[in-house]
Amino acid sequence: MSANPVLLNVEHLQIRVGEHGPLAVDDLSFSIAPGEIVALVGESGSGKTMAARAAIGLLPLPMQVCGGRLDFQGRDLASVSPEELRAIRGASIGMVFQEPMVSLNPALKIGQQMSEALRLHTDLDPPQIRERCLTMLRRIGIKAAERCLESYPHQFSGGMRQRIMLASVMLLRPALLIADEPTTALDCLAQLDVIELMLELTREQGTAILFISHDLSLVARYAHKVVVMRHGQAVEQGTIEDILLAPKAEYTRQLLEALPRRGVLEPLPASNGPLVEVDQVCIEHPGPTSFWGKRQHTRVVHSASLVIAPGETLALVGGSGSGKTTLGRSLVGLIKPCAGAIRFKGVDILKAANRTHRLQCQMIFQDPYSSLNPRMKIGDILAEPLRHEPGLNAAQRRERVTQTLQDIGLGAQFVERFPHQLSGGQRQRVAIGRALVRHPQLVIADEPISALDMTIQKQILELFERLQAQYGFACLFISHDLAAVERIAHRVAVMHQGTVVEVGAREQIFDHPQHPYTRQLLAAASPLEKLPDGGYRIRPAI
């Protein structure tokens, strides 16, 4: 790679918040050669995305470049005109944003959005544009390409939207692809598909990749070089072998230490029977209504059976769309199964007239920002579930809220704050606190650490473990993060296309998987693991 000419050269870059604000990026330097994959890693707020956005002139206000150089193909990007920069952006430098649902216009069909760049940067006529779009969609694994062009973004899963975004960017065959957290919130198989697609397209077209990620395992597997950032500065940079597999900087070692590892679990309390029994549950989603008024139903969960003991953490893993969240929601009464039984402490909750069991079952939703009412203060959010506690007066409810804030690691000053005033990690703590304020016997945690950086993930997992030991609740832990599952779960259930294909103890699933799909999941994960000598390696696939 070193023999190749430099494609992008960043020298002493400085980005300031406003005219007199603090530096978001301070004295950052790195370079990318054609066909090279360079990763920017670090905690949230370290300046990774700002540095990448500066290269294409898309810094959000009040951010502004106040020093250094950004040279692309020998041209100083700071000296080019806005018209020239717009010509470079999209045609020569493409960017895949973190959240494809936000970057795709929900009011426009996929075909309209994909063809826009071709209309702006090429002389192709409409039939040629359509054919190139169809070819690229088929290239990324979308079989019904014609139907895809006529569809809207909301009709696709997160993984498919990410593929479509990547296809849209690669249509113009850019020299540099900036991928900002392109695999966030995707399951490990979808992550692998997206990354492999990026690599294949770069091999064919010689595209370089600036890969922004907090997933160190992915970076270690696919990047050539890595730049570790903290507080807007490069802590260290070099090859993967030098930086991630044999770290020297203390901060890099801290990031690697934050990676989840198999922990020692506390023994389960003695019990007379299971807390929850899911027996042959089937769930259907209603489809469109035909001309004759008949509604078609699609079965998304097929005869699922699970058992959760008191105090136990059962992890439910599988690809996106496998039915994990749907099954979890059925346990708290948000979705009604069409067949089967769900017994809570021996009572079939699908047939019981009394719904008091719901007060003993609480849910932590995947996105804490959308699940927290933006108009309610944190104190009111935590107090709301206590309205169903008739034995508590107002003073006792305030005391319970204060105690819960202490338990989740937030001070009393957070009572008067709103969700938008909190960081992602703090919002997740509030979501956990809201679920635990009633001291439930069962908690369903739906992707509780997705989209959080490694350090915050570690804090949330440690918090969850501590609170489970304190309150003694059982947990259905729904996640695609197998490293987190390996740390926290007593047993693991694997779902594939709505069916539970394998259930077993943590050690059995991770060390001796039986089902081919389980082995496929584990092979796609391949996390970094610490060696006895202090170094790291990518865990070999089973």
Walk me through this protein's architecture.
The chain has three domains: 8-92 and 174-257, P-loop containing nucleotide triphosphate hydrolases (Rossmann fold, 3-Layer(aba) Sandwich), CATH 3.40.50.300; 105-173, no CATH class; 315-333 and 356-511, Rossmann fold (3-Layer(aba) Sandwich), CATH 3.40.50.300. It has 542 residues and is α/β, with parallel strands linked by helices. It contains 20 helices and 22 strands. The chain is globular and about 70 Å long. Helices cover 35% and strands 25% of the residues. The longest helix has 18 residues, at 188-205. Helix 4 packs across helix 5 (126-139).
List keywords for this structure.
542 residues; alpha/beta; Rossmann fold; six-stranded mixed beta sheet
How many β-strands, per DSSP? 22
The 3D shape can be described as globular
Distance between the termini: 31 Å
Structural category is alpha/beta
- The helix count comes to 20
pLDDT averaged over residues = 88
CATH class of the largest domain: Alpha Beta
Radius of gyration: 25 Å
**What are the low-pLDDT stretches, counting only 5+ consecutive residues below 50?**
none
CATH architecture verdict of the largest domain: 3-Layer(aba) Sandwich
Count of structural domains: 3
Strand content: 25-35%
Helical proportion? 25-40%
CATH topology-level name of the largest domain: Rossmann fold
